[in-house]
Amino acid sequence: MTQVDFYLLSQDNETARLQFSCRLVEKIYKKGHRLHICAENQQQLNQLDDLLWTFRQGSFVPHEKNTYDEQVPVSLSMDAANPPKNHDILLNLAPSIPQNPGLYQRIAEVVAADESSKANARQRFKAYRQQNIIIETHTL
What we know:
Layout: E1 3-8, H1 14-30, E2 35-38, H2 42-54, E3 63-65, E4 74-77, E5 89-92, E6 106-111, H3 115-130, E7 134-139
Parallel strand pairs: 1-6, 1-7, 2-4, 2-5, 3-4, 5-6
Helix pairs in contact: 1-2
């Protein structure tokens, strides 16, 4: 069964959201999971691609953009509905829930502290709940 984890940040900016996302991705990767990241738009996709190489000195998170290669441990795209087949976790940075959340064991939602982000997250929370998905909230 799918579980969704909402990470509520105390910062209200996109830079903090992406930095935290990179740390989360690194942690998930080091635990041996395969992860798909769904970006909101092309600019965010490119930022994440760059940040995953540079967010922390000495960090290494092998990843590729727009790939369906099952050998790639971390994939990035703007499409959550078509991850590589063996990717069990989704980091959803898009403004809506994925079409088929059941493709993943876990979904991470990272929410900045600004009112717009929180309002959008509430809508995603309700949508997940309507699908009887287990939800955990982590206030950071």
